[in-house]
Design brief:
Layout: E1 9-12, E2 38-50, E3 57-67, E4 77-83, H1 97-104, E5 109-113, H2 131-154, H3 156-159, E6 161-171, H4 173-183, H5 186-192, H6 197-201, E7 219-223, E8 226-227, H7 231-234, E9 240-246, E10 256-259, E11 267-272, H8 273-282, E12 287-292, H9 304-320, E13 322-328, E14 348-349, E15 364-365, H10 389-397
Parallel strand pairs: 4-5, 4-6, 6-7, 7-9, 9-12, 12-13, 14-15
Antiparallel strand pairs: 1-13, 2-3, 3-5, 8-11, 10-11
Helix pairs in contact: 1-9, 2-4
């Protein structure tokens, strides 16, 4: 694996994790369920909304995938909302069906959603294409994504969702939607979209359905997406990030530039995955970036199976309580999560000797450790008080070891 940076930085999370999601082969690089062991509920309505540019009523639907409860003992599973791309003009949830099913085969509950499309633009010949209309389409897509999240929360018990582990994912326009749905607050959205637009279509959380459920996003999966203002994500430092992007992308910039620049003259100025990753590292935020190196312009070419495997391991590391900040340009990169295994014979408790509630009988840490200063730092493997090279050596040395 070729790294852009000279080292891998292992960061500790000031969070607790759920022991049930840091167990065995679940949520890892390999599927643990077969296709016929996945429940599929297709075209589930989650709301209705008016298409701003045509005034047509749009039924909002999603496909939902999760392991059959008859064979899966886990009652509450991590949840992923998956959002397709298409330049906010076209596209369909079916484009991400493979990804969604593969995530479900690793133990996740996945909702694959449709949303309102169109902004009076033909992006082939660039007729009637205006950046302000594109911003309006983004705003409406975010409304739909947040309506889908409220609906999923209302179906928590039916689908077996663990509300403490919610992830958003998208591809291209869907990735932009996922990140804005995660990082935007209402004031930020109002400042970046045509003035007064929210007065016409409602707030971010007042569209699509009348549900009032709330949710907290723990991490976002960015597949060749971008955001307009980097500072928006800095207001949410607890949210982890993993990105996949082509190095020479002319549809959504890899670093900084206009959207859809290979078809038209470009619209707006957005910051792509590389700019996001660099900014997050500079601010000490959890971040991982995988680049598909390109000579000619290309868009969203990273292999789906690689995205699923790497992202599953990223989510699992997050649920196990730590983050590895790094980036690579190898589309065949090896996922790192086989070491995060526990067994039913484990004795859960605080395994950190320096913690106030250290349990000498515990074999598997459950995130309950308490230090005098309140810091929870699982990346300090050698318990020296500093996360350094020695911790990294210990971690790498144990990759692939099966825990008895």
């Amino acid at each position: 694996m070729k790294y852009f940076f000279a080292s891998i930085l292992v960061l500790c999370f000031n969070v607790q994790f759920e022991a049930q999601h840091c167990i065995g082969e679940r949520y890892s690089e390999n599927a643990i369920f077969e296709d016929d062991q996945i429940i599929s509920q297709l075209d589930v309505p989650y709301g209705n909304a008016s298409q701003f540019f045509t005034n047509q009523d749009v039924e909002l639907v999603m496909d939902v995938y999760y392991p059959d409860p008859a064979i899966d003992p886990i009652e509450g599973r991590p949840f992923i909302l998956n959002i397709h791309g298409g330049g906010f003009i076209s596209g369909d949830k079916n484009e991400l069906t493979y990804q969604s099913i593969e995530f479900a085969k690793r133990g996740f509950v996945v909702a694959n959603m449709n949303y309102r499309l169109g902004w009076n633009c033909d992006n082939v010949i660039c007729v009637n294409c205006y950046g302000s209309n594109l911003q309006r389409a983004m705003y409406c897509a975010v409304q739909d994504a947040r309506a889908a999240m409220r609906f999923a929360k209302s179906m928590q018990s039916t689908w077996g969702i663990d509300e403490n582990h919610v992830f958003l994912s998208g591809e291209s326009a869907g990735s932009i939607t996922a990140m804005l749905s995660t990082f935007w607050n209402q004031d930020e959205a109002n400042a970046q979209v045509a003035e007064g637009f929210s007065d016409l279509v409602g707030s971010l959380d007042n569209s699509g359905n009348s549900l009032t459920e709330t949710f907290v996003v723990k991490a976002v999966l960015d597949q060749c997406g971008a955001i307009p203002v980097l500072e928006d994500m800095l207001n949410n430092p607890e949210i982890a990030y993993i990105g996949f992007h082509d190095s020479n992308d002319c549809v959504v910039p890899y670093d900084t530039g206009p959207l859809i620049a290979c078809f038209c003259s470009g619209f707006l100025s957005f910051r792509g995955s590389h700019a996001i990753h660099t900014t997050r590292l500079a601010n000490g935020l959890c971040s991982e970036l995988h680049t598909a190196p390109q000579i000619l312009p290309n868009h969203c070419t990273y292999p789906d199976n690689g995205i699923v495997a790497l992202a599953s391991c990223f989510f699992k590391r997050h649920m196990c309580g730590f983050c590895m900040n790094f980036d690579d340009d190898n589309i065949y990169a090896t996922p790192i999560c086989s070491a995060l295994q526990q067994t039913s014979s484990s004795i859960y408790g605080c395994t950190y000797f320096s913690a106030m509630n250290y349990d000498p009988s515990a074999t598997t840490d459950d995130g309950s450790c308490v230090w005098s200063d309140g810091l929870y730092c699982p990346a300090d493997i050698d318990e020296s008080g500093v996360v350094g090279v020695s911790d990294l050596i210990i971690l790498i040395g144990n990759y692939g070891v099966i825990c008895d």
